[in-house]
Structure formats: C-alpha cells, structure tokens
Amino acid sequence: MRHAFATRETSEIRDAMTRVRQGLNGIAHGIVELGKVEAQEAREKLEEELGKEVETLKDMLKTGTRETQKLIGEARRQIEEHPVITMTAAFGIGLIAGKLLHKKSA
Hints:
Layout: H1 2-81, H2 83-105
C-alpha cells in the first residue's frame, strides 16, 4: 500500500513539475514577446527621432545654400559696381600671400 501511495505522490509531483515547467515556458515566451514589442517600439521611436534630425539638417542645408547664394550675389554686385577697387584688393592680397609664401620657403 505504501508503494502505491508513493507512486501516486510521485506522479502528482511529476504532473505539478510539468505544469510549473509549462508555466515557466509560458512566462519566458511572454518575456521574449514583450521584449520584441519593446524593441520594435524603441526602433520606431529612434526612426522617428532620426527622421526629425534629418529634416532639421535638410532645412539647415537649404538655409545655408540660400545664404551662400545671397553672399555670392552681393559679392558679384560689389565687383561690378567697384571693379578698380576689387582688382586693387585682389592684387594686394596676392602680393601679401606671395611674400608670406616666399618667406616660408626660404
């Protein structure tokens, strides 16, 4: 009789352990799935933030391009309005640069 009781207890313990294992597997699976969801959410947030940064950089580039074009236009206007002063300044800058480079090579 004792053997039958021990066998039944052993069987119940095995069944309980199986249920615990299944429960733990379910928990582990849930954690993995939760991690996937959180990783996907983090990825989406990162993509959104990067998208905003890219748009900001594009806007900055457009602004810089417009400002550069304005400066080029202003420089052309100044050259056209004051060609003698422009040529004299270019000559002077070239002369100074030549002197400085000649001193370095000597």
